[in-house]
Design goal:
Elements (H helix, E strand, L loop, with lengths): L2 H9 L4 H28 L3 H19 L5 H18 L9 H4 L7 E9 L7 E9 L7 E2 L2 H30 L5
Antiparallel strand pairs: 1-2, 2-3
Length: 179
């Protein structure tokens, strides 16, 4: 029996309330999954970083497989990877945030927090705060967001070429194309 026959056999016998629940569940998935994803990458350090490392591993692995790489295409891929990393991975992780921690004056410690604002109905903004906190718990120095963005951009350029280098090294060690 084909799947289409099985589907048509049961779809006509399903009550409307079950169709209603299935459609409601589908609508909730379409709305809730993107919201949950944005919330998770905004509030938890390292989630977006891990996603970008996996994506970069495969993207730059495909460049490593090529015998003749176009510098223009590789440069565009690195630029796109760095721009997306900079824009999406604002939280960073414990390693990516170390250059920012070096900016803190002596006697303060680095801290990242997220402020959630609802400026308009139906709109939610998550604002990353990168600060240096003194022993009293007050932030005497806030790291400018422009500096955070530039740092993230430079880090993702470095990560792109590092991933490409690792994949090329693996290719050379194996003596055959990287899988």
């Amino acid at each position: 029996m084909k799947i289409t026959e099985l589907y048509s056999r049961y779809k006509d016998r399903m009550p409307s309330w079950l169709w209603l629940l299935m459609m409601l569940f589908g609508i909730c998935l379409v709305i809730c999954v993107p919201i949950a994803f944005i919330y998770i990458i905004s509030h938890f350090e390292g989630v977006a970083s891990a996603i970008f490392l996996v994506i970069g591993w495969f993207v730059f692995g495909s460049f490593a497989k090529q015998e003749k790489r176009s510098p223009l295409v590789l440069g565009g891929a690195v630029l796109f990877f760095a721009l997306m990393g900079m824009a999406i991975d604002q939280t960073g992780n414990i390693v990516y945030n170390q250059p920012l921690a070096l900016l803190c004056p002596e006697g303060t410690t680095y801290a990242r927090s997220v402020a959630t604002y609802n400026p308009l109905p139906g709109r939610t903004d998550f604002v990353q705060n990168f600060q240096c906190i003194d022993t009293g718990g007050k932030p005497p120095f806030a790291i400018p967001m422009g500096l955070v963005i530039l740092t993230r951009f430079a880090e993702y350029i470095f990560i792109a070429y590092l991933l490409l280098g690792i994949r090329l090294l693996l290719k050379k060690i194996r003596g055959r194309p990287v899988q």
